[in-house]
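Title: Comparing notes on inverse folding

I've been comparing how different people in this forum approach sequence design from structure. To keep things fair, I'm posting one structure and asking everyone to reply with a full sequence. Here's the target:
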């Protein structure tokens, strides 16, 4: 099955791990899918639950998806916006890049967020919450084929949001975990403890302990993404905070700066409070639901 790629890319994005995560979901799951750390939303968009509550502390991500939900951002808006922005970027290069970056940090318009996010594929913020990705020296970034790809991605997400019941909320993780009920699944993908630092806000031992306390006491099932080990060290919290839960692992490669030669192997972990019956393939009923949805919006091509 094709992997759905969202228009926003963020650090730690789970595009290539979404099948693995999807296949640990129990076949009889019928509750709400809850993501306190939605990031790009790629996991939910591939799981395609009927009802989901997707949250993040980063308001730009939430504003962007709420703008798609309300119709303020539509594929046609994105197309004409990126076409005209692409032209200005081609003519004025670096100066224009920084002008828009400043404009976005001042006005926080979701379309500017999309524009900057698509510039070199990743979003990154400084400690004050300012978007700080530098110019990637590609004034011709917004070629026609690239704009089409982004427009198709927006279109796919717009259809998903129309078809299912998805809520996007900007908030800290505590509230949504406390409100989850038996039968729901909370999928948590916080910044990896001891690894990533360039998030909208930081993540440290205190944050990991706070998350652990809330997940320990939650009424629903949970799946937590974290790192297990790399060639040099191991995630010590798996033997302390998370030691009473089940853990499964999978090797994954991260590309530093997008270069193939900088492939860093890492063992990824999924920590769960239920026993995982891992299936190689998605259950038939769920696969049929996703395939019917894809047929319904058939004309949209989604890049792998
Ligand atoms: C690893 S990323 C999630 C990636 C996402 N699963 C994906 O595939 O795109 C972690 C996310 O956690 C968010 N975050 C950090 N601290 C948070 C908090 N206290 N409450 C809610 N979200 C938080 C960050 O803004 C970031 O989007």
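Reply #1:
Here's my take.
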């Amino acid at each position: 099955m094709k992997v759905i790629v969202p228009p926003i890319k963020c650090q730690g994005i789970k595009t290539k791990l979404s099948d693995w995560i999807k296949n640990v979901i129990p076949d009889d799951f019928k509750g709400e899918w809850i993501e306190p750390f939605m990031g790009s939303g790629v996991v939910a968009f591939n799981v395609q639950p009927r009802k989901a509550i997707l949250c993040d502390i980063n308001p730009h991500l939430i504003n962007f998806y709420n703008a798609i939900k309300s119709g303020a951002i539509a594929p046609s808006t994105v197309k004409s916006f990126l076409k005209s922005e692409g032209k200005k970027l081609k003519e004025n290069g670096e100066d224009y890049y920084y002008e828009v970056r400043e404009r976005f940090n001042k006005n926080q318009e979701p379309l500017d967020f999309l524009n900057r996010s698509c510039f070199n594929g990743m979003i990154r913020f400084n400690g004050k919450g300012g978007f700080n990705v530098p110019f990637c020296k590609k004034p011709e970034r917004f070629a026609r084929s690239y704009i089409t790809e982004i427009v198709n991605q927006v279109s796919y997400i717009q259809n998903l949001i129309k078809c299912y019941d998805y809520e996007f909320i900007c908030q800290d993780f505590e509230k949504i975990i406390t409100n989850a009920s038996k039968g729901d699944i909370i999928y948590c993908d916080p910044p990896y403890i001891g690894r990533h630092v360039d998030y909208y806000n930081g993540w440290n031992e205190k944050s990991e302990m706070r998350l652990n306390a809330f997940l320990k006491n939650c009424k629903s099932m949970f799946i937590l993404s974290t790192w297990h080990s790399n060639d040099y060290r191991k995630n010590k919290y798996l033997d302390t905070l998370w030691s009473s839960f089940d853990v499964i692992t999978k090797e994954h490669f991260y590309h530093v700066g997008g270069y193939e030669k900088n492939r860093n192997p890492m063992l990824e972990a999924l920590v769960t409070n239920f026993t995982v019956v891992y299936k190689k393939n998605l259950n038939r009923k769920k696969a049929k639901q996703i395939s019917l949805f894809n047929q319904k919006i058939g004309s949209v091509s989604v890049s792998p």
